[in-house]
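Hello Y.,

Per our agreement to keep a running log of every chain we model this quarter, I'm adding this entry. I've kept the format consistent with earlier entries: sequence first, then predicted structure.
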Amino acid sequence: MSEQERARKNRTETENFYIKQEVQLQVQAGYPLKQAQAIAFRKFRDGELFIPAIQTETPAEMKKERKKMTNNSLSGLYLLFKLGGLAYEKMTEEKKKE
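Predicted structure for the entry above:
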């Protein structure tokens, strides 16, 4: 995992959006792209960049939540499968008795 990917997982989508906006503002002000990125990230690091609290989950947290929901769904499907198997067994036993 690259340093950039690690950093993205620790920032929310909202934070990434406002950092990107700041980079664009700095480029419009005449700074080269690399310098504009450095300025934006320094402002973010030092808390000078205004970011409203819209989203609180990082992409890593969202992925973990999706995985948990998938596991719950799979558990539910497994229980339905087992219940269907039991119902089928009971139905075939009743047919054998007849």
